[in-house]
């Protein structure tokens, strides 16, 4: 029989694809890690074959899909790299229809959706960067094919993108006018239509999001208030609840759910980079530090995978 585990191996949380301190110099990076939250270990895994930054990553089953981003020469990419967590090897999938960076992605009904971001008219950033994109693409792993679906109501980049209750949710982001956005955009694949679901408690971008049941948790980011703040959004009632603040202010952090808890890693605030993996327990509304990462980093993605084991 098959046994489901979260992450890259026994007791592990997920994959951290990271940017190291070189990110300020404009170079891409190629590191990926396994986070073992029980053993409190951060384990290096097979490097991404093509270094990049400002990409997105999502998991479908035991595979992690890394989409787009900017390469070492700052060219915007359509490439899709796939990491098989069982065999620990990389392969290429069909490229996206639009080159993009600063986008979000999420799995929904065994397909991958890529949302928003930026592209570049000249192909090299920052020569002619575009405004935030409205375009949304859907990838079918079985057919290895991308198709366009209904565009966002409002184009955004640097938004938090998750799936819950058979729908996609996009929180905040940077608008086409380069302002912070305070809208929740929701996509129903059965209708191929986006609606404005709710207003966020504040405008924000570079936030982290993770899902527990019908509850979506939004943490940190570039906000009008504190980057340590965290909220819970009920996607059935569309109601917001403020929860306990994180232990540190974090922009560009990433989060995921494992079991009945949330985990947040990396990020920065001002000149300080966060060196900890923190855990949120919703039953006690408290945060605590699980472990430190090998060096302070700004993660580009943090995902969990199912690993199927033989009987």
Automatic annotation (TrEMBL):
Keyword terms of this UniProt record: Kelch repeat, Repeat
Gene Ontology terms: biological process: protein ubiquitination
InterPro entries: Kelch-typ_b-propeller (IPR015915), Kelch_1 (IPR006652)
Nucleus recorded as keyword: no
Pfam families, per database record: Kelch_1, Kelch_KLHDC2_KLHL20_DRC7
SMART domains per the UniProt record, alphabetical: Kelch (SM00612)
Annotated spans, Disordered: 1-22
Protein name according to UniProt: KLHL25
Species in which this protein is naturally found: Cervus elaphus hippelaphus (European red deer)
